Amino acid sequence: MSLLDAHIVKTRSAFTVDVRLRLRAGERLGLFGASGAGKSTVMSCLAGIETPDAGRISLGELGLFPPSLPLHRRPIAYLTQSDWLFPHLSVADNVCFGLHNGERDGATKWIGELAARLDLRRLWHQPVTHISGGQARRVALARMLARRPPLVLIDEPFAALDRATTNELIAALQEWHVALGFTLIAVDHRPEILEKFCTRAAVIESGQIVQEGSWSSVAAAPATPLLARLLAS
Fold first, then answer.
1. Are 40 and 189 in contact (CB under 8 A)?
2. To which H or E segment does residue 91 belong?
3. At CA 181, angle to CA 22 and CA 91, rounded to 5?
4. What average pLDDT does the structure give for the chain?
5. 124 near 91, Cβ under 8 Å?
6. Which of 1, 63, 66, 223 has minimal CB crowding within 10 Å?
7. Residue 39 above 60 pLDDT?
8. Three-state SS for 80?
9. Residue 106 — very low, low, confident or very high, per pLDDT cuts 50/70/90?
């Protein structure tokens, strides 16, 4: 049975995004394609930042569209290139921002595990304006997972990070995927990044899915010349 069942239609100036996605609970999908292909449009419609022009999105028994369920009511974590941390809050308050008082009390152990794994304990009470870019990315990742969401969306989250930090955060995501069993959709312009933690690929060009399958099958027989160039670059 699918956890996520989505048909997203959204018109852009150059083309119309028309994408169907169906993921089982715990599945990890890499959404791959050139810049401007429509990847971020798909992600923002799933997250609730944008409203599709047509289609249907459901997460288990919960309908996300139509009508469009407000962003704050969606049990979805979304991590983008920007950390979007609150500069007036500490590391701890940023991580726990999405938790209600009762949730905070019940999540103390889990929040402690996140802080320890991401090396945030020594920064816990510092303002986020006093930490580095790599540390801010760790804070954003901890906040994303604090509510233990069933669906995690990550859109180019490792941009501008060095290789060591990227590999460490990927390893952390893999560990928590095992622990929590969340479903994951990831976007990155580097196929070697997506291959590390996504078992399946969906390739998008001009708003359409042109190929789906395992990374090995996509790499062995790219469906389009553009995809072949992207994989070879």
1. no
2. helix 91-95
3. 110
4. 91
5. yes
6. 1
7. yes
8. coil
9. low
Q: How many CB atoms lie within 10 A of CB 151?
A: 22
Instruction: Report the 10 Å Cβ neighbour count for 190.
Output: 15
The 3 state secondary structure assigned to 140-208 is HHHHHHCCCCCEEEEECCCCCCCHHHHHHHHHHHHHHHHHHCCEEEEECCCHHHHHHHCCEEEEEECCE
* Backbone phi and psi for residue 118, each to the nearest 5 degrees, phi listed first: -100, 10
Residues 6 or more apart whose CB falls under 8 angstroms from that of 138 comprise 118, 119, 120, 169
What distance in Å separates the CA atoms of residue 155 and residue 44, rounded to the nearest whole number?
9
What does the alpha-carbon distance between residue 76 and residue 153 come to, in Å, rounded to a whole number?
A: 7
To which residue do tokens 């990227």 refer?
166
Structure tokens at 105: 């009390």
Structural tokens at position 22: 């169906």
**CATH superfamily of domain region 2-75+149-232:** P-loop containing nucleotide triphosphate hydrolases (3.40.50.300)
pLDDT average, residue stretch 32-55: 95
The pTM for the full model equals 0.91
Residue 203 has what pLDDT? 96
- Strand boundaries in 44-177, DSSP class E: 54-59, 62-65, 76-79, 151-155
Distance of CA 110 to the CA centre of its chain: 20
**Of the candidates 198, 200, 197, the residue with the CA atom closest to the CA atom of residue 172:** 197
Average pLDDT over residues 75-96: 90
Q: Where are the domains of the chain?
A: 2-75+149-232, 88-148
Q: What are phi and psi of 200, to 5 degrees?
A: -135, 150
